[in-house]
Structure formats: C-alpha cells, structure tokens
Design goal:
Elements lengths: L1 H11 L5 H20 L5 H21 L7 H20 L13 H10 L2 H20 L3 H5 L1 H83 L4 H29 L3 E4 H15 L4 E3 L8 E4 L3 H18 L4 E8 L3 E7 L7 H6 L13 H12 L3 E6 L5 E10 L3 H5 L1
Keywords: ATP-binding, Kinase, Membrane, Nucleotide-binding, Transferase, Transmembrane, Transmembrane helix
Protein name: histidine kinase
Catalytic activity: ATP + protein L-histidine = ADP + protein N-phospho-L-histidine
Length: 415
C-alpha cells in the first residue's frame, strides 16, 4: 500500500488538489453513465449528458492545471455537478433512482474546498434538490404505503447524512487548513530566525575584524597628529575615525540590548523627537515634515526601535534621491490601542513583488538587498508590532508601523 501511495504521489504531485479530484470524479461518473447506463436513460437525458460532458471537457482544458483555483472556480464546478446530477435524476426516476445519494458528492467537495457559508449553501441546495425529487415522485408509488415509507426513510437518511457530512467534513477541513497555516507560519518564522542568525553572525564577525584594524589606524593617526599637528587633512581624518569608533560602539551596545532584551514603555513624543534628531543628523538634505499632533501615551519600545525606524527612513531617502525629491512626511496617530507611525516618501514606489516580500526576507534590488527593512520588521515583531508597506495613491511608498500603545492618565500627562 505504501508503494501504491508513493506511486500516486509521484504521478500526481502538486496536481492533487480538490479541483483535480473533483474533475477526476466527474470523469468517472460520466464515463460510467456513457458506458453502462446510456441505453436506460430517458431521451432528454442524452442532451443533458452531452452538455455536461462538453462543459466537463471545457473545465479540464481551462482549469485542470490550476494549483490554487479561485473560490468562484470551485463554486462553478460544484454547481455544475449538482445541477447535472439533479436534472439526470429528475428525468430518470427521481427519488426512486438508486443513484440519488450521488447528491452527497458536491456537498463533500464544497465542505473540503470552500468556506463555511458556501458549505452551508450547497448543503441546503442538495437537501432542496432531494426534497423536490420526493415531491415529484409518481402518484403510483405515493399510494403504495410500504414503498412510500421506504422512500421517506431514504429521504430522512439523506438529510441526516448530508447534515453530518457538512458538519464533520467541514470542521475537519477547517482544522486541517488552520493546522497547515500554523505549520507554514512556524516554518516561515524558523526560516526568518535562521536568516537573522546568519546576518548576526556575519555582523559580529565584521565587527570583530574591524575593531583591531581600527585601533591600529587610531594609533597611527595619533602619531601623525603629533608629527603634523597643523596639517588640515589630518584634522579632517579625526572626525571620520571618531565616527567609525562611535558606530562600532553603538553596534556593540545594540547587541547587548538584543541579548538582554529590556523593552519598556516610552512616550511617543520622546521617540519621535529622537527620530527627528536622527533624521536631521544623518540626512540633513531631506526635509522631514513632522506631525502637528502627537499621541500623549506611551509605546512598548527599546533601544532597537530607533535603528529600525532609521532603517525605514534610509530606504525612504534612497527612494527620494532616485526620484530627485527631498520631501518626507511623518504622521502619527492612535487607533484601537495601537500607535501608528506613517513615513511617506515621494519616490517611484515599489513593485508588487517587492511589496509582498520586502520586510519578510532579504530582497534583491538595484538599491540593495532589502536587509534593513527585513531587520526593521524583525525588531518590530519582537516588540509586538507590525510593518506594512504600500504604494501611495499620490505617488511614492508609505511605510506604516503599528506599535503597542498605552494611554496615559490626565495626571500623568500633566506631570
């Protein structure tokens, strides 16, 4: 049996979707009708069978290769099965036909592949179809009390069966879908953590490799400054070396912050003031428009929040420079226990592929690998926040940051 399962999986692969199975089952019951029951069908059933077969072949051509069919495709295919089966039963014995329980099949596929309300709708439609067949049952059978009770029992059994299938199969399908979603999220989170670990190891190695040469250069610089104290080039190099040492020490402090993990509540105004100072220091050529009103509460933050916001700022500045713009807009407001910070640039925006991947994995582009936005998203996730990127309708890209927010009492605000 294991060999058979492996062979089927190898042959079908990713094609084994609910739509693929539905088309396969429809091919089976259409083939059985054409081969064995065609002579016993009513004349009008031949026309129904021809139309159904034509639509089935058209469905195979149009949708047979889809790996992730849309809901409307599945709704159309299940509706086709339900309508074709009902019409064939209407003209071939109705509720007395032995194959009347085939009306269960569309309900099963609806419960497996569609959302809750579609499942309920197809269940009710199948019940109505069987009830209609019972209502139109011939009077001769209706006067036979024993047979009438028999077919009534069949109808009750169908109602119970389709209800149980709808509840059980639908619930199991939703449970499986939720489990698959959790597994997929866990896999993505694990992959993201592995990427972060790789970047962290590389950064730590670079820091270690830079520290010793930087100390050597610092000693050489001190000797040169003693020998040529008035040389303007040497005085210019002092600030560059000081900036390198400052950035290296700051990076070490950030590593300590990540290792210790000590977030706390900081006022929104304090965070935005620090951010605007950093923008003025790092990008003096850009004009950052600050919000007129700032929420008076606090956000859940640590020392890594500012570098995360500066990374987003750096990408916005790069987009502006590419479009020869120097305007940036910053908005901040509260909504539903969240503080929302929006940073808008006036560049050319992002492609749909970049909008989907940027922030969740390093993305290659002509401006870099997208690592800064990726790390910013990781920092925000660690603080319980989220990052959204979208193209603004007026042009440019809008980075929207959601952070946990706590309102301050009037006494705390006044204090």
């Amino acid at each position: 049996m294991n060999s058979l399962e492996q062979w089927l999986f190898k042959q079908c692969g990713e094609k084994l979707t609910p739509l693929f199975v539905l088309l396969l089952c429809r091919s089976a019951w259409l083939g059985v009708i054409w081969l064995f029951f065609l002579a016993d069908l009513a004349p009008i059933s031949i026309s129904i069978l021809v139309v159904t077969t034509f639509l089935h072949l058209l469905s195979i051509k149009q949708f047979g290769g889809l790996k992730t069919p849309l809901s409307r495709v599945m709704v159309g295919q299940i509706s086709l099965d339900l309508i074709a089966m009902t019409l064939l039963l209407v003209f071939n014995g109705g509720a007395t036909n032995a194959f009347v329980t085939a009306l269960l099949l569309p309900v099963v596929f609806a419960c497996i592949s569609l959302k809750f309300w579609f499942c309920v709708s197809f269940t009710l439609i199948a019940m109505a179809a069987y009830s209609m067949l019972m209502w139109n049952m011939s009077n001769d059978i209706g006067h036979d009390t024993h047979m009438a009770h028999h077919y009534m029992a069949m109808w009750v059994n169908f109602i119970l069966s389709v209800s149980i299938i709808s509840v059980v199969v639908g619930s199991m399908a939703r449970m499986v879908a939720k489990r698959e979603k959790r597994i997929s999220q866990q896999r993505e989170r694990q992959l993201r953590e592995e990427q972060i670990l790789a970047i962290s190891i590389a950064s730590a190695q670079v820091t270690h490799d830079i520290a010793t040469p930087l100390a050597t250069v610092q000693l050489l610089y001190e000797e040169l400054k003693d020998q040529y104290p008035e040389d303007p080039l040497i005085r210019t190099g002092e600030s560059a070396l000081r900036d390198c040492a400052t950035q290296l020490n700051q990076f070490r402090r950030q590593i300590d912050v990540i290792r210790n993990g000590t977030p706390n509540w900081l006022s929104v105004k304090e965070v935005l003031d620090t951010f605007s100072d950093a923008a003025l220091l790092y990008f003096p050529q850009q004009k950052l428009q600050l919000p007129a009103n700032v929420p008076t509460g606090k956000i859940w933050s640590d020392d890594m929040l500012l570098p995360a916001l500066v990374n987003l700022l750096q990408n916005a500045v790069a987009a502006n420079q590419e479009a020869s713009q120097n305007q940036l807009e910053l908005h901040c407001y509260e909504r539903e226990n969240q503080c929302i910070i929006e940073l808008k640039d006036f560049g050319f925006g992002l492609s749909q592929k970049q909008l989907q991947d940027l922030g969740y994995e390093p993305v290659k582009s002509h401006r870099g690998l997208g690592i800064s936005v990726f790390l910013s998203n990781v920092t925000l996730s660690r603080l319980g926040g989220t990052l959204e990127l979208e193209n603004h309708h007026a042009g440019g890209c809008l980075a929207r940051v959601y952070l946990n927010y706590k309102r301050m009492t009037d006494e705390a605000v006044n204090h």
